[in-house]
Amino acid sequence: MAAVTADQKTQSTSGTAKAAGTGAGPAAGGAPDAADAALLAAFDAAVAADDRIEPRDWMPEAYRATLIRQMAQHAHSEIIGMQPEANWITRAPSLRRKAILMAKVQDEAGHGLYLYSAAETLGTSREELLDKLHAGRQRYSSIFNYPTLTWADVGAIGWLVDGAAITNQVPLCRCSYGPYARAMVRICKEESFHQRQGYELLLALSRGTEAQHAMAQDAVDRWWWPSLMMFGPPDDASSHSEQSMAWKIKRHSNDELRQRFVDICVPQAEALGLTLPDPDIRWNEERGQHDFGAIDWTEFQQVLKGNGPCNEQRITQRRRAHEEGAWVRDAAAAYAAKHTTPSTRTAQPAQHVEETA
Amino acid sequence: MVLSHRLGEWAGHAPVLEEEVALANIALDLLGQARVLLSLVGDEDELAYLREERAFRNLQLVEQPNGDFAHTIARQLYFSVYQHLLYERLAAGDGEFAGLAAKAVKEVAYHRDHAEQWVLRLGDGTAESHERMQSGLEALWRFTGEMFQPVEGLDAAGTTAATGTTGTTDTAGATGTSGSGSGVDWAELESAWLSAVTATVERATLTLPTGPRSGAWAAGAGRQGLHTEPFGRMLAEMQHLHRSHPGASW
After folding, report:
1. pTM greater than 0.80
2. Which end of chain A is more exposed for a tag (fewer CB within 10 A), N or C?
3. SS3 per residue for chain A
4. Across the interface, which of B25, B129, B238 has its CB nearest the CB of A331?
5. Cβ contacts from A onto B, under 8 A
6. Contact B49 A352 (CB under 8 A)
């Protein structure tokens, strides 16, 4: 499942981002000295010229903090996002579907790895980020707080959730921070593949028996609105967006991307033979776009606050996996400490995994 | 297929992210192998989802619940070493399964390496991991004898597969003449397995279990459709959705 980074823009109004708003320069420390001003000017010029910022380049602290927050949230979403789908691995109704689902969940773990690595180029560590996730100090996408109640949910997640994620993430392939942009290129390729598989799963159900069709429709009914919420609050309530767009971390507003997603989904739903649970969706000739109904922002805020259907369950499982795995990580560290110097032994686990993944 | 299912249960629960990837990767390899083998016999989904417990012929070892990470690794060590040695022998023959085994042997070599590396890390890691690894090895030891019982039916099929095989003289240098007709010299395979497992266990500062290698029932019970209690529950979960929609395609 894909992660999304837009949906929590509002509550993460971190003070740091404000402290060094774009034009203001390093305002926090009082009068900027000439060297700082020159660095900032060079940074601004690079961003303006669409050059990539690389790990060793100077960057405003607020830019660094915003990226760490966003990339961490993105990485966390990948690993929490494994849960709702893994919920169906043992019950997948055919061996082919089971293999596809296992491969997808494996890809998500891989995406988490890329993104933690990319975040580490900013001077943080995976351990630190995971600790923050477990302590509730960093977030993951709100969408993963919804339960997967039937097999069709696996398809709806692929089609809608991954679809929304891709809409959000394709522009990130041009993000001003190089390591993030490069990670997104790899991730988006795999996500597109997952989305097609999800669509194909739903299509098989929609064209299957009556019970299968009903299962597919029910899943789409439950996942549609939460998917629209993945784009984050409406533009007038998204304080963070402006800064991110100025830094070219973000390229389009939440509402623009949400509109784009609706316009993509309407014909796809028709092709699937399924309806979208919004009586207000209709083509607007004047705008050349679809109108659609109002999103329940109260529900969105509740989910963000931790009161969604699965918030507690998701974080508890993640914490438990981490805590129960502590002795394994300790063992690996102890073994490595004993055997590093005169090592004739083969690869470390991480390298090992990457070779074959 | 059964072991793949068990490994699939780890998704989202592994101790580190790298292991999420590795365990899923192994599960996928095993599922791929199972699908090829099942398709040789009939419809893979019918065989997977519509047989009842007594009709499954898997080893009891692979149906054992995951337990903690050390139990999972112990099960994986026992099975992956076995599978690797077996496939090497089958691949060296000229039978029906030689091609399949040749393809799968690359995958299982990786599974074996993964399991062996973890046995070393856990055995020679901390006091706690040492104890857990030892306990995993002990708990699953009783299911290892079953792997080396000639399999009725399978062995007959294997006769055509590997008649006149001389390839079994390879690794362990044992004689290649097989009495069972499967092309696999089960006694030779067993001794190769024992020495490989012993070497890893000792290098990991652990002790090879000394208990019996089969239960009160004759070793080979799984091959006769006699399973352990957790297996029925595993199948109930695995088959439920498929069985709830008879005749549906997915």
Report:
1. yes
2. C
3. CCCCCCCCCCCCCCHHHHHCCCCCCCHHHCCCCHHHHHHHHHHHHHHHCCCCECCCCCCCHHHHHHHHHHHHHHHHHHHHCHHHHHCCHHHCCCHHHHHHHHHHHHHHHHHHHHHHHHHHCCCCCHHHHHHHHHCCCCCCCHHHHCCCCCCHHHHHHHHHHHHHHHHHHHHHHHCCEHHHHHHHHHHHHHHHHHHHHHHHHHHHHHCCCHHHHHHHHHHHHHHHHHHHHCCCCCHHHCHHHHHHHHCCCCCCCHHHHHHHHHHHHHHHHHHHCCCCCCCCCEEECCCCEEECCCCCHHHHHHHHHHHCCCHHHHHHHHHHHHHHCHHHHHHHHHHHHHHCCCCCCCCCHHHHHHHHC
4. B129
5. 174
6. no
